Amino acid sequence: MRTPNTELLTPKVTHSLEHLFAVALRAEFEEHQRDLQVLDVSPMGCRTGYYLTVLNPAGALPLSRATEAVRAMLPEALEIRELPGARLEMCGAYREHDFEQAREEIVRLTREEIVSLEKPPLLG
Ligand SMILES: [Zn+2]
User: Fold this and answer.
1) pLDDT exceeding 90 applies to what percent of the chain?
2) What's the gap in Å between 89 CA and the centre of ligand 1?
3) Span from the CA of 85 to the centroid of ligand 1 (angstroms)
């Protein structure tokens, strides 16, 4: 999502996107990839992107399909009007969010080309 060592996501935006992506990706997989299960969406410590961990029996999810799922999930994430799980009993840092900036980041992502995960740009 971001170029390493240049324009990192802020910690609050990173955290809010984690909550939004978890809900939107689970919904996307629930609707279109019912044989798969999203186990985790977690931010990279360097704040440049996220890891997506999927229970993928027999290699049912090609990386190109995972990329499509990420593309398809972005508009769904924008439909979310209240940040999921951002309450004391559900989040260990419920005050450390920036929902509006996270939404702006998603809008920015919808305008960007999302490179297929089979060809990560930094790995050539
Ligand atoms: Zn949280």
Assistant:
1) 61
2) 10
3) 7
